[in-house]
Amino acid sequence: MSQTPQPATAPGPDPRRDGPPPVTWSRDPAHHALLRAWSQDHWTRWVSDGRSVWADPRPTRRLLTPADGDGLKLVTDVVLPEAVAQGVVDPRTARRLQHVVDRLWGEAYPFVSP
User: Is the pLDDT of residue 29 over 50?
Assistant: First the structure.
């Protein structure tokens, strides 16, 4: 009984030999840690304090810019007050959410306070 020939396949990456793609460590633009790994074309979830490395549990997302300011202002001026007025969130939660918006504002405008 003859065996059917199988198509040739190229060998896949060998993690023992190839390892992960090279990364560059730079200041974390999201300010979640001191350093964040840049992998050729994107920020990774890997962060460091200069001694230890760990996976950032927060999602890696694009950085905010001044172009995002109108959206942040809408949340502060309209969305949060309306959510409190409709009973969707209590005032304490709205204040906590406003702190998140303030931190995002600091990312969008690193040298200007809201």
Answer: yes
